Amino acid sequence: MQGAASKGYSNGYHQNGGHKLRKGNRGRRSHRDYGGDGSAARVFSATDDDSSPRPPPPPCTDFDMAYFHSYSHVGIHEEMIKDRVRTETYRAAIMQHQNYIAGKVVVDVGCGTGILSIFCAQAGAKRVYAVDASDIAVQANEVVKANNLSDTVIVLHGRIEDVEIDEEVDVIISEWMGYMLLYESMLGSIIIARDRWLKSGGLILPSNATLYMAPITHPDRYSESIEFWRNVYGIDMSAMLPLAKQCAFEEPCVETITGENVLTWPHVVKHVDCYTITNHELESVATRFKFKSMMRAPLHGFAFWFDVEFSDPAILPTENNPQSSIMESPNEHSSTDGSQRKKRANPSQALVLSTAPEDPPTHWQQTLIYFYDPIEVEQDQIIEGAVTLSQSKENARFMNIHLEYASGGRSFVKESVMR
Ligand SMILES: C[S@@+](CC[C@H](N)C(=O)[O-])C[C@H]1O[C@@H](n2cnc3c(N)ncnc32)[C@H](O)[C@@H]1O
Description:
The chain is of the alpha+beta class and 419 residues long. The chain is built from ten helices and 18 strands.
């Protein structure tokens, strides 16, 4: 999704320089419907008499407005579309599910430039509601028109929480994943779309997601940012070390590492089933971990990454058949057991979009939480602790990270915010 830390965008989201909030437009907004004939979409405005039984949508805050504004910049869409791992996996997933899409109604939650909606139209969808609250929806509509798809793809310029679609849908598609999977909190909008419109037995792409973490060593990175200050053109600048550590490692870093940086098998922080996950569950995610280092190395921190899977609804776990999709409980083999596989079993051979260090890089890279000081660990040394990821009270799109870790008889706490 985004490239804030590494791509020169500042202050979270995708700003290329300062952003302007669109003031005086809080709460419900009116929406533009660029729909063609036959759609069941309705322009919704603040003056509509809302007699529907559904609870009022959550307010659109200034933070949300800044977030949507960040997606009006072409750069972020270019970056996402040029990420071939991402875009080609989505296209392959759509084509693989053509029998669920052809002749059916689809909603694309956060359509951006409209690319996934157009893939769905190419797969034979009867109608696609392409919804985006960002002004990029204006361009999406132009792209749809230029491809002669206006009869099939109806662009709705508004929040998924606010737009009206007066029919049930067969398929929900969305590219909602943020750094560390949950940053940006866009999954909440997929839940809202699912609960508002998805037919029973309908398809959600992707269908499930898993967030992983693992301890890492990264001597080059530490040396380049920290050790550097020990000898600068022959001058001892070690006095800079505390500031350098704080500036480099206070907040999570989005960087690409490789499998060689990872000290042992990962731990599953959270598994998300898009058919059943609730917004309440996403407010705070907590897990305890226990790793056994497979090598002697300086431990510099933890890496987080995720994968998403595109499965048929029929093979997702149900109450009666809880093991139908995931053959093993994700952390069933404790992370201290060297026989553990690196990833979840994938018996259905479902298409997977992975952002793991050992897989081809994506624009999500990996999210690293570095320690201020490394811990020297021996082979087989235990690294254990707990992590809690919670939505910031101030802005639910920001993530508070509370990390407790212990190894070799010493324990530490690190608090950080991904903003
Ligand atoms: C990661 S981009 C994906 C764009 C496009 N689907 C693609 O794959 O290239 C997410 C898009 O979702 C939109 N979005 C996020 N939350 C939304 C919401 N609640 N309602 C409408 N649009 C939303 C953003 O404005 C952004 O354009």
